[in-house]
Design a protein that fits this description.
Largest sheet: 5 strands, parallel
Enzyme class: transferase
GO biological process, one term: cobalamin biosynthetic process
Protein name: Precorrin-4 C(11)-methyltransferase
Bound molecules: S-adenosyl-L-homocysteine
Strand content: 15-25%
Radius of gyration: 21 Å
Distance between the termini: 40 Å
Pathway: Cofactor biosynthesis; adenosylcobalamin biosynthesis
Order of helices and strands: EHEEHEHEHEHEHEEHE
Number of helices: 7
Strand order of the largest sheet: 3-2-4-1-5
Helix content: 25-40%
EC number: 2.1.1.133
Structural class: alpha/beta
């Protein structure tokens, strides 16, 4: 059995309880060495076999999984953040299907969620944006024609851009026609790690600031009005708005008891 596990964004405590348990039980761990915090490997048991997939091809990864399966061993394939976001685990799952090897997936805290936590912001502010676009600028992997940053920008939604901080100035130029050069932008480098850095600015100056900080990778770009302070209060906690769990405001002091 192979368990795909989301390692979380970096902080050792931001892996799920289930993910940690699987790491503790694994006979073989294959981890994405370019981004996964290697200290997570210390959760592994004595004698666990460890492979760094950053130095391996897909075939080599599959060969390790196949060998482990033949020996009746349990494998954890540790992906950074959550595997479903730029994790390239689909091709591994499809190959395991062809090989008749069973697997499951344990989700993780994606870096875009850790970035919001570090920024202390909410992506979905009423009156600002109710949509989050996760995307990237085309690089070695192309982005389909209908998903260019320029066209996505037209929605003026909250945008979180992966894998693109090395092209910060091009990203800003793509977004500025729709958001305006004064739109707030932030770059979060190594969200949740000890050496995390946050750079705040506007589309106009964020490129320069990021360059000054020497940030070239392992960072997310966040753009949109959610970074500002102008928004409407949520209906969820609005006293004049009743819902299933709170029928009117009389009597209630707003506290909960077990
Ligand atoms: N599956 C991962 C993303 C893998 S793609 C996830 O859910 O987060 C790799 C990209 O993710 C990096 O180029 C960077 O843009 C982003 N990333 C991963 N970890 C990060 C972190 N701790 N802080 C900021 N960005 C991170």
């Amino acid at each position: 059995m192979v368990h795909f596990v989301g390692a979380g964004p970096g902080d050792l405590e931001l892996i799920t309880v289930k993910g940690k348990r699987l790491l503790e039980e694994a006979d073989v761990i294959i981890y994405a060495g370019s981004l996964v915090n290697p200290r997570l490997l210390s959760y592994g048991k004595e004698g666990v076999e460890i492979h760094n997939s950053a130095e391996m091809t897909l075939e080599e990864v599959l060969a390790v999984m196949k060998q482990a399966e033949t020996e009746g061993k349990m494998t954890v394939r540790l992906h950074t953040g959550d595997p479903s976001v730029y994790g390239a685990h689909r091709e591994q799952m499809d190959a395991l299907d062809r090989l008749g090897i069973g697997y499951d997936v344990t989700p993780g805290v994606s870096s875009f969620l850790a970035a919001a936590a570090s920024l202390k912001k909410e992506y979905t502010l009423p009156g600002v944006s109710q949509t989050v676009i996760l995307t990237r600028k085309g690089g070695r992997t192309e982005v389909p024609a209908g998903e260019s940053l320029k066209s996505l920008a037209k929605h003026q939604a909250t945008m979180v851009i992966f894998l693109s901080v090395g092209q910060m100035e091009e990203v800003a130029a793509d977004l500025a026609p729709a958001y305006g050069w004064d739109a707030p932008a932030a770059v979060v480098y190594k969200a949740s790690w000890e050496d995390e850095k946050i750079v705040r600015g506007t589309l106009k100056d964020i490129g320069e600031k990021v360059k000054k900080e020497g940030i070239r990778k392992t960072a997310l770009i966040a753009v949109g009005g959610f970074l500002g302070d102008d928004y409407q209060l949520s209906r969820l906690y609005d006293g004049s708005f009743t819902h299933e769990f709170r029928k009117g405001t009389e009597g209630g002091d707003g506290t909960w008891q077990k």
